[in-house]
């Protein structure tokens, strides 16, 4: 299975900066063992897609979508509108959206269903707070976010779903999760998937990746853990000076 290297650009980079970084990435070589994707702001998506030229190995995704196809939902963007740009992936339920915009597991579930119906690969983000971990609640929180986020889904055929385990205390903090703890969380997510969808679908249709202060120096420590299928990278993916060395390190893995 390919290792996923996904760059979440968050509310950073002006269009001109996104385009420049995409042009650099599109010219970069990476092996077939890596699936590279970046998630620019909505405002940059159109030009970002054009900037990759014919290099469709570089996937472009969105950072969110709404659960309805169209209608009176001011400010929202639907999965159907994302498909217009040939986008294939969408982040859903990132902890920053849960924290600042009040996204609940139920909203996340509706978005995941809508993304799948539109033919997108959703990247469901789950992860516990510092306090959850201190109080020993992290397993419960991750299992709940995974099972409620995916409740009622029928997954079959070639439909793919990515789960990103992103402990909130590790995101943007420079305090990456110990790879052993990340492996434990990944195993828990995988077991939840097996319970919900059965072993074959859990294995073939789902990837589970780690996110939280990943950089060129620590990427290999995650990719070499059993059950970690890749990484979702924020800060280090937003500059070629930090993203290219990370891709190179991952390529040697
Ligand atoms: P970070 O962000 O790599 O800056 O910690 C990860 C994310 O939020 O996806």
Structure description:
With 253 residues, the chain is an alpha/beta fold. The chain is 43% helix and 17% strand. The protein contains eleven helices and eight strands. The protein has helices spanning 15-27, 42-51, 79-83, 95-101, 105-117, 130-134, 138-149, 179-197, 199-204, 219-223, 240-252; strands spanning 3-8, 34-39, 58-62, 89-92, 121-126, 161-165, 206-211, 230-233. It has an eight-stranded parallel barrel, surrounded by six helices. It is globular, with a radius of gyration of 17 Å. The two termini are 13 Å apart. The structure holds 2-phosphoglycolic acid (PGA).
Short description:
The protein has 11 helices and 8 strands.
Helix content: 40-55%
Spell out the helices and strands N to C: EHEHEHEHHEHHEHHEHEH
Bound molecules: 2-phosphoglycolic acid
Helix vs. strand class: alpha/beta
Radius of gyration: 17 Å
Determine the N-to-C terminus distance.
Answer: 13 Å
* Number of strand elements: 8
């Amino acid at each position: 299975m390919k290792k996923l290297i996904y760059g979440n650009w968050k509310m950073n980079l002006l269009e001109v900066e996104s385009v420049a970084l995409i042009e650099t990435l599109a010219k970069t070589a990476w092996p077939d063992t890596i699936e590279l994707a970046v998630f620019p702001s909505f405002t940059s998506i159109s030009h970002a897609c054009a900037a990759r030229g014919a290099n469709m190995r570089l996937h472009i995704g969105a950072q969110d979508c709404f659960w309805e196809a169209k209608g009176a939902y001011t400010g929202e963007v639907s999965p159907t509108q994302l498909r217009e740009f040939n986008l294939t992936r969408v982040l859903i339920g990132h902890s920053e959206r849960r924290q600042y915009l009040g996204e609940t597991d139920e909203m996340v579930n509706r978005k995941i269903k809508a993304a799948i119906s539109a033919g997108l690969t959703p990247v469901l983000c789950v992860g516990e707070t510092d306090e959850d971990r201190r109080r020993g609640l992290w397993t419960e929180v991750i299992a709940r976010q995974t099972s409620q986020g995916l409740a009622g889904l029928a997954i079959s055929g070639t439909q793919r779903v990515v789960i990103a385990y992103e402990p909130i205390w590790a995101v943007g903090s420079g305090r990456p999760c110990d790879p052993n703890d990340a492996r434990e969380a990944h195993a828990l997510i995988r077991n939840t998937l097996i319970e919900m969808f059965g072993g074959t679908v859990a294995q073939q249709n789902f990837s589970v990746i780690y996110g939280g202060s990943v950089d060129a120096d620590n990427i290999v420590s995650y990719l070499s853990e059993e059950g970690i299928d890749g990484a979702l990278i924020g800060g280090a993916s937003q500059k070629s000076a930090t993203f290219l060395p990370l891709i190179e390190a991952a390529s040697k893995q």
